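RECORD TYPE: inverse folding
INPUT: structure tokens
STRUCTURE:
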């Protein structure tokens, strides 16, 4: 369910990704940030200091679920991470689990900032998420 735009890829409400871009440019694990212009806004290639590259989709989907993830892949191909770039938007735990199994990270921006320090970024879970995954037998 898009926050503002009725069309994929759920573009930024404000028409830019300045907050995300500023955070990435300041992050000590990021060497280079490249905005990709395929199929609209929101797709980035992030080169980490260790040489890894993350194809990252940024969106403002009000409630990002498994269907939205599949639609993202259909429109953008393989990706390494999805970042929800809005304080009023979120993702479902089912989508987090689905992406986890596909080795794709699904994050709010604060969690992405921590996850990109790991080689296996998709495995980053908050304490609450870890408990939820364990309670549901997902870990």
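DESIGNED SEQUENCE:
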């Amino acid at each position: 369910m898009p926050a503002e735009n009725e069309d994929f890829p759920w573009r930024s409400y404000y028409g830019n990704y300045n907050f995300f871009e500023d955070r990435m440019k300041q992050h000590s694990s990021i060497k280079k940030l490249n905005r990709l212009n395929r199929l609209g806004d929101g797709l980035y290639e992030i080169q980490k200091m260790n040489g890894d590259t993350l194809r990252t989709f940024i969106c403002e989907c009000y409630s990002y679920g498994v269907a939205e993830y599949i639609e993202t892949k259909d429109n953008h191909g393989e990706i390494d991470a999805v970042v929800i770039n809005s304080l009023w938007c979120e993702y479902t735990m089912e989508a987090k689990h689905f992406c986890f199994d596909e080795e794709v990270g699904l994050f709010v921006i604060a969690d992405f900032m921590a996850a990109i320090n790991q080689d296996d970024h998709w495995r980053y879970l908050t304490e609450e998420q870890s408990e939820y995954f364990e309670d549901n037998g997902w870990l």
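NOTES: DSSP finds five helices and seven strands in the chain.
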